Amino acid sequence: MATRTRCALLALVIGAASAVALDRVAPVAPGGAPQGLAAQPVEESYFGTTVIDRFRFVEAKDAATLGWMKSQGAYTRAVFDSIAPRAAYLDKLGKLGAAFGLVNSVQAGGARTFYLERKPGADVFDLMVREADGKARTLIDTAALIRAAGGVPQAIDYYQVEHDGTHLAVGISPGGSEASRLSVLDVASGRTIAGPIDRAQWGSPSWLTDGSGLFFLRLQDPQAVKQPSEKYLNPAAYFWDLHAAPAPIAGAATGLGPVTDPVRFPFVVVVPNAGRVVLVEQNGVQNEFASWTAPLTEARSGRASWRPLTVTADDVTSLDGNATTLFLLSHKDAPTFKVLSLPVDGTLATARTLIQARPERVIESIHAAADGLYVAGREGLTGVLLHVDAHGTLSTLSLPFAGIVEEVATDPTHPGAIVALVGWVHPRTHYRYDPASGKFTDLHLDSIPTFDASRYQAAELTAQAGDGTRVPLSVITPRGAVQARPLLLDAYGAYGISNLPSFQPRIVALVDAGGSYAECHVRGGGELGETWRLGGKDADKPNTWRDFIACAEMLIKNGYTTREMLTIQGTSAGGITVGRAATERPELFAGAIGRVGDLDALRSEVMPSGPANIPEFGTVKNEQGFKNLMAMDAYQHVRNDTRYPA
To answer: Where residue 565 sits, what CATH number does that domain have?
Structure first.
């Protein structure tokens, strides 16, 4: 799309400007700047409002447009190369990043521990397994996959371990396509024993307790897709007996199961050792879902009598279970979330509140284990981890350090949990919690070089928005007195996703080079619960970028930076935040980065992912939806004769 192209180029240009600002060196523009594209206006009427799109034609990506894109790319590269300090800065950043490894997606299977690891200096993640004796080995060597594919990039998109750790299901895609192919591996030998199965993007495999098969999600055949916006319609849930071909068991186009809307995604969750499954109906990016339960034996045949468990209005956003109990996370009459429990064969009417909502604590996730339930949450921007035992007794676990609970891995057939903690200036560290001893043990999975955290400081502040709302603001600076520095201010603000404290070498490098970093926790995110999310959604979406503006003003007022040294940044849906802040208050910022940003909200609906995003952003097919999208469309708010941030 036109704005996607402009956004990518804008990110490149601002990336150069941001790096240069630290050394106060201006880039030297090379000669021969490419000509701009001539506008070809298209007019459309929405509910009596005429909208002019001057560059709609670039969506076709004809030869002239592609040539323009390449010339802009070459010119941008030339500008980059003219910045004398940039190469040294990138070299320093690369060395710092290479010194740190990165481990995530940890899972436990029997006595084995599995994880994705990007080793220090590497560019890709490998799938690793650590045996009970502590010895680790590479199960999937991604660099080897790339060599076998003739240099075509490969990525591990997801994996799920069988409960006893004997097998695992893994989705791998080529060339950055995210078009996962699902295979099953024998862990002991590393051999593929089933698959690959295509069209398994977002496969979400869920194993039978005995490991004989699994359920997964599969997209429709591409031959059925007539236009881009249909790509993700009619997904289906499949059951895969590992000794036979996968077969559909639910989905709108299959004629099986309760899901009849072609936009809805049917995911099946097996409740281990309970003989039952839960079918979850996901409406695109909407957090709340409907669900049904059925006996496992019926579900795998595709002829189940599905019994309703929840409807969307129950505001349930997550579920998990063990042999006896289902656990539900809900914000129904509980903006900071509560946890419900019910017998594994029960109904919502029989549910009881296991953990009450509290205004000062946001519950984020629930994780069933054989010894009860582990619950991750936050009080402000500090993580908490709760545990409920089999008798319903609630306790707050004492964490190894004050940070965010970034990851919790449990298995409903085994006790305990693996927990990842992280802070702004504390690298991610994985621990195993043993409920018998009540102790956390460092697993030493994480490659952390010698690092002096005392050189940095993270301040948790608040900015006051125009409507009086107090907006949380995190600022990372060199330790010492506040002084004006080049500052990168980031925000997101959609889907209820929280941008929480997270250690990133690029932030450390920025601070080491004399800059500062800040994160504005705008409405639309989930930092303060459901009310906070809804406060930046639909007709209230302008609160998102106005919170961002308030954070920028506060940083300037309090001496952290100046307008001449302030660059703002937003990624994906954060493009709405940064784009509208830059178009509403262009004089406030020196630079603006939209990383693959949504800057043309009116046209997002025609993209392959467009229908799935309607629950979050609305549709131009009704008047209020059009008004909301028009308000958040940065492209439609660009005006001639206005000086915008670089």
So the answer is: 3.40.50.1820
